[in-house]
């Protein structure tokens, strides 16, 4: 599995409106080894929750089926492309967001993170201004935003050079991918809520 920080919307949403959990959830991929112990207990919980969410996602049959659509072209990066794709369907999930509420949610996330900016890892500090100014969380809603996210994933990868085929796969299998999201995300939300309760009790 290739580790790429791409599905920011899901991690933000599954922080359940808790600032410390949000901070840890968003920076987790940038915190290596024992460095997590330099953060508050709440942020450490967010880091742990992020990693548990990733593990659940990697093992879910719907995620695996979606990644398999990308795998013939992108091999180990298939799961990273499905993460971005599922953020698109989350952004368009009528049971969770309207266009207006997604925009408001994105602004709330940026404001919350900005208050904690000084403690973030350097790489996340460098990326965050772009996330905010380009409103990545909101533009997952649009197909053009997904195309740009795929381009960014390719730029950050070790050997990928072309995001075009990924977007073609996304477009040609759109209905199938929507169905897989519908199978997956309610289970993920329930798991994340339960896991956070466990972390609070530890």
UniProtKB/TrEMBL annotation:
This is Acyl carrier protein phosphodiesterase. GO terms for molecular function: [acyl-carrier-protein] phosphodiesterase activity. The lineage of its organism: Bacteria, Pseudomonadati, Bacteroidota, Chitinophagia, Chitinophagales. Keywords: Hydrolase, Lipid biosynthesis, Lipid metabolism. InterPro entries: ACP_PD. It comes from Pseudobacter ginsenosidimutans. GO terms for biological process: fatty acid biosynthetic process.
């Amino acid at each position: 599995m290739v580790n790429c920080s791409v599905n920011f919307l899901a991690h933000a949403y599954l922080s359940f409106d808790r600032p410390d959990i949000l901070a840890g959830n968003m920076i987790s991929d940038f915190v290596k080894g024992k460095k997590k112990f330099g953060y508050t207990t709440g942020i450490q919980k967010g880091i742990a929750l992020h990693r548990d969410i990733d593990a659940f996602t990697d093992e879910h049959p719907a995620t695996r089926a979606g990644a398999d659509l990308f795998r013939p072209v992108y091999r180990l990066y298939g799961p990273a492309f499905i993460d971005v794709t599922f953020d698109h369907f989350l952004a368009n999930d009528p049971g969770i967001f309207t266009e207006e509420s997604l925009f408001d949610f994105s602004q709330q996330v940026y404001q919350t993170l900005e208050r904690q900016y000084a403690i973030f890892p350097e790489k996340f500090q460098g990326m965050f201004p772009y996330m905010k100014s380009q409103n990545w969380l909101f533009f997952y809603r649009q197909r053009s935003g997904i195309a740009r996210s795929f381009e960014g994933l390719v730029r950050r990868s070790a050997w990928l050079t072309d995001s075009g085929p990924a977007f073609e796969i996304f477009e040609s299998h759109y209905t199938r991918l929507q169905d897989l999201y519908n199978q997956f995300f309610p289970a993920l939300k329930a798991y994340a809520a339960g896991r956070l309760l466990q972390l609070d009790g530890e």
